[in-house]
Amino acid sequence: MKNIIQKHRFLYDFDYINSPRELNDLLLYQLGEIYCDNGSHLNEHIHDDFFEFSFITEGSGFFYAANIKTPVEKNDLFISLPQESHMIESDQKQPLRYYFLAFSFKEDSPYRKILYNAELMRMHPHYRKRNLPDLDLSFRNLLSVIESNAELSDVQLELTIKLFCVNIYQRVNLAETKQYRPISFDNEQNIYFQIVHYIDNNFAEMTKITDVCDVLHYNYIYLSRIFKNKFGSSLYTYYINKKLSRAKELLDEGNLSVTEISNALNYSSIYVFSRAFKRIYGVSPNAYRQQALEGKESE
């Protein structure tokens, strides 16, 4: 990457491209962060036998995979596949800043069977982009581990990357499965499970409750009746509580602004988000964060 990136403000890179760092059956090629300049680009190149995870922390732009153009913005994860052509364009006004992790596994590794599966390898580039705001902390943790010279740091790095890869695979692959595979149901209990499972895994990206109806191919009235019979409360209430519970967690963590949390949870505006939050918790997001900070200070 050092030879093909055009214009960057900084590049913080643990580079093992020419000689992958071996961590038992894990092969680490690159781990780092890059802050692009306005309108800069990464020239087209073909990956070796490794995956690359890129997570956008600022700005916007386009990722190209196999000559297919995919727009990306803050909190998006993009997965590039082995032996795939790859190119990146940064926006002129809002330049990209992103983490990247390039890795592979040895031929006899059980992790290789997980990632190098037919479903993931044939996934369209547009669906290899997922909005996953909580990954910022995971990437920062990876960089902290690789910087450490403490005893067993190699073991910690290996295990951290493996758990990270499995987590990403599960979240991306399950989302793709739900979108494309037809779903058949044997009974109402199974439908109820599918409703809960879909909302639990996709509430942050959903813009409206009827998204679940589109995926499960049932009308809202029917699904609402089944859900209320089984759960005792409305389908809409369950969805909103999931969204706002996550908002509360993000406010407690303190890494994102109220506006960023509103965007990450796909609210149409910060006003709509604040009104919904106050209706459930009795205070605005800003007031809740202030109360949380005062509580920590008093402790």
Number of strands: 10
Structural class: alpha+beta
Write the CATH homologous superfamily of the largest domain: Jelly Rolls
Counted by DSSP, the helix tally is 11
CATH class of the largest domain: Mainly Beta
**What is the assembly state of the chains in this entry?**
single chain
Specify the biggest β-sheet: 10 strands, antiparallel
The helical percent reads 40-55%
Described by the principal axes of the CA atoms, the overall outline is globular
Which CATH architecture of the largest domain would you pick? Answer: Sandwich
Note the gap between the termini: 46 Å
Output mean pLDDT: 84
Your description of this structure?
This protein folds into two domains: 5-180, Jelly Rolls (Sandwich); 188-298, Homeodomain-like (Arc Repressor Mutant, subunit A). 45% of the residues lie in helices and 26% in strands. It is built from eleven helices and ten strands. Strands 1, 2, 3, 4, 5, 6, 7, 8, 9 and 10 form a ten-stranded antiparallel β-sheet that branches. It is globular. The model is unreliable at 1-5 and 175-186 (pLDDT under 50).
Which features would summarize this protein structure in a list?
Arc Repressor Mutant, subunit A, 299 residues, ten-stranded antiparallel beta sheet, alpha+beta, globular, 26% strand
Describe the protein's topology:
Elements: E1 5-15, E2 21-23, E3 26-46, E4 51-58, E5 60-65, E6 68-73, E7 76-80, E8 85-90, E9 97-105, H1 110-115, H2 118-121, E10 129-131, H3 135-147, H4 153-180, H5 188-202, H6 211-216, H7 220-231, H8 235-253, H9 258-264, H10 270-281, H11 285-298
Antiparallel strand pairs: 1-3, 2-3, 3-8, 3-9, 4-7, 4-9, 5-6, 5-8, 7-10
